[in-house]
Amino acid sequence: MNSTTFRAGMWAAMQDLFTRILAHPFIAGLTDGSLSRDAFAYYVIQDSHYLMDYARALALVGAKAPDEQSIAMFAAHARGAIEVERSLHAGFFRDMGITADTVRATPVMPTTLAYTSYLLRSCHQGSFAVCLASVLPCYWIYAEVGTALLTRLSPDPLYARWIAAYGGEEFAKIVADVLALVDRVGEGAGAAEQAAMRERVIATSRYEWMFWDAAWRRETWPV
Predict the structure, then answer these.
(1) What is the pLDDT of residues 169-183, one digit of tens each?
(2) Residue 212 · residue 112 · CB < 8 Å
(3) What is the largest CA-CA distance in the chain?
(4) Terminus of the chain with fewer CB atoms < 10 Å: N or C?
(5) What is the rounded CA–CA span in Å between residue 21 and residue 131?
(6) Sign of CA dihedral 55, 61, 63, 68
(7) Which is catalytic among the residues 85, 144, 193, 208?
(8) Are the beta carbons of 133 and 198 closer than 8 angstroms?
(9) Could you say which DSSP state residue 109 is in?
(10) What DSSP string runs through 54-81?
(11) Which residues are CB-neighbours of 49 under 8 A, at least 6 positions away?
(12) How far apart are CA 85 and CA 24, in angstroms?
């Protein structure tokens, strides 16, 4: 990574959180196959709920985009988030014997709701640059986690499939396009807007760690 690019500063803000994510027992359990099916099922169901609102956030990013190419890109990514929910998740649900009715009946849990609410608030209220920073960790951290885990693989074919989806070249190309845009937008932003971008990218990186941790603990509503 070119140390002079805007993305380098954004990654520096995320680096410690990414290191903590890689060290989390949920991620470790994916690679060595020890992660319980209950924890993975929790994660996939909550991710299904999450992606619906993430698609809405991406649509908002596209709506605020200043050029046709960016509008088209985020519209396509919003559609892609829905397609992931329908295809990748559907395969996991089928293999684990989880029905569509079970997914619909499972409530959105606290961390999922907090994360998506923060995303949607940021994308409704923020500038295009702030919106872009808010959705960035879900792209970038998943790509980096996928790349890191792809070198280790997994003895569990279900978990290996998840790793392959996010560690593959197709997803890497999507993320590369977003990062190129982050450089252009960030370098053209003023100091206050750059600071707001860093604030959002740190917050949503924290939510990424919390999302996996919630699945590991199988978080529920306390009351």
Answers:
(1) 999 999 999 999 999
(2) no
(3) 51
(4) C
(5) 23
(6) negative
(7) 208
(8) yes
(9) P
(10) HHHHHHHHHHH-SSHHHHHHHHHHHHHH
(11) 106, 108, 112, 116
(12) 24
Q: What is the CATH number assigned to the segment(s) 6-217?
A: 1.20.910.10
For tokens 């252009």, the residue is 184
> Is 85 noted as a catalytic residue in this protein?
no
| Burial class of residue 67 (count of CB atoms within 10 Å of its CB; 0-12, 13-18, 19+) | exposed
Question: Cα separation of 57 and 120, whole Å?
Answer: 6
Active site residue 170: no
Beta carbons of 65 and 129 less than 8 angstroms apart: no
**CA-based torsion, 52, 58, 62, 63: positive or negative:** positive
């499972």: which residue's tokens? Answer: 106
Calculate the CA 79 to chain-centre distance: 15
Q: In the chain, what are the domain boundaries?
A: 6-217
Q: Name the catalytic one among 131, 138, 144, 193.
A: 138
Structure tokens at 76: 């396509």
pLDDT per position as a tens digit, 31-75: 999 999 999 999 999 999 999 999 999 999 999 999 999 999 999
